[in-house]
Amino acid sequence: MLIGKEHAAVILGAWLQGEHLEDNKLIPYQSFPEPYDAVAKDFQNGAKLDAIVKRHGAKFIVEINQSYSPVLYQTSVGSYLTERMHETIPPHASPSEVKAHADKFARYWTDAPEPVPLAENYLKAYDERSKTEPAQTGINALDGITNGIYPGQLTVVGARPSTGKSAFCLQVALHVARQGKKVLFLPLEMTAAETIDRVIMRVAHFDYKDLIRGRLERDQYAELAKVLDWVEDMSDRFKIYENVRELEATEELIRRERPDLIVIDQLSQIRTAQQFGTTRERYTDITRRLKAIALEENTAVWLPCQMNRESSKTGTVTIDYLKESGSIEEDADVVIILANDKNDDGRTFGDKASRVVTMQVAKNRQGATRDGIELNFYAPRFTFTSIQSGLKETTGYEEDF
Q1: Exposed, middle or buried: residue 118 (CB in 10 Å: 0-12, 13-18, 19+)?
Q2: What is the H or E stretch that residue 80 is in?
Q3: What is the pLDDT of residues 97-149, one digit of tens each?
Q4: Phi-psi label, residue 119: left if phi above 0, alpha if psi -120 to 50, beta otherwise
Q5: β-pairing, 300-306 with 334-340?
């Protein structure tokens, strides 16, 4: 989009007089019509006024100077910004989408990007690494590969239904919170109470069915009270937000809370203000925005998502089976895939409710990948534990609290 000649003269006139110089980095010289674009290019390249006058002629530069007035400048820049903003808004956008685009455009205009001082910036980042240990997932086999959870990372956890991906992510979230980190957990397929049920069962010793039916004995109820005290003690660093389905609301929540980790369970339940023609396009928009907000707010995002049905038919689960993958695998820094072990010969690993789940680190932007990692999933306690290399059996559930 080109600026009108009258507006171009007013804007350049201000800059040549030393006014509003902070704006010259935000309006590229390519936006100016000829011959104003050549003057804008010289000015933005740091040419001196006398060189500009010599190159373009005193008469032309005087005319530009005389075009400036404070009122006209605001009108000219406002006209330019309005046109630019309209270009970014999709046709038939909803009011909330228009607002989101306007807010994003306003942030860009008031906070223009600057080149990064390479060596100085790197040394600052290096110093920060030495001061802060990355959060650990508590799954030793996983931490040994990824070295923990880093700010700015988007981690996707893919699995078929009933494999335990929600329990896996909840376990990681709790472990991170126990390290003193701030964690937000957004269950989009369960209520907050159902999520707390799972938290309780990880440390309690009564049966899940008695808990969900509200039929605990007196001594069991006393144990429940102690567990809830423990849950309450963690409430400043482990927070559950119920029914936050709109991506725009999630983005604002991240900006407000500035968590070390947020788990959004799960991808298919997230809504956006913008309408898309296909699920693939919607997922692509969601993962790109989640990666962007992770970098912007220096937080880690974990996102469980479904594997498609073909993965069940083939018996081999790979990153290619992420449902409507689109840019999921491109945007993710780490992709973890969980699958029920097809080779499990029925041994119970200490309890009939246990089963083997195979974990694969299918993508790791900062390091190695690995497949065939065996985990023991003890369903009554919603708990995963590592199976030591070379062993086929364990003694059962090993409490990690």
Answers
A1: exposed
A2: helix 70-88
A3: 677 766 666 665 555 556 777 887 788 878 877 777 899 999 999 999 999 99
A4: alpha
A5: unpaired
The domain made up of 134-386 has a fold known as: Rossmann fold (3.40.50)
Segments making up each domain of the chain, as ranges: 5-110, 134-386
CA 193 to chain centre: 25
Residue among 299, 312, 304, 224 nearest 256 (CA): 299
Q: Are strands 354-364 and 334-340 parallel, antiparallel or unpaired?
A: antiparallel
- Residue 347 burial class via C-beta count within 10 angstroms: exposed 0-12, middle 13-18, buried 19 and up: exposed
- Angle (nearest 5°) at CA 125 between 119 and 128: 145
Per-residue pLDDT of 267-287, as tens digits, reads 999 999 888 888 888 999 999
What is the pTM assigned to this prediction? 0.69
* Phi, psi for 87 (deg, rounded to 5): -65, -25
SS (H, E, C) 212-226: HHCCCCHHHHHHHHH
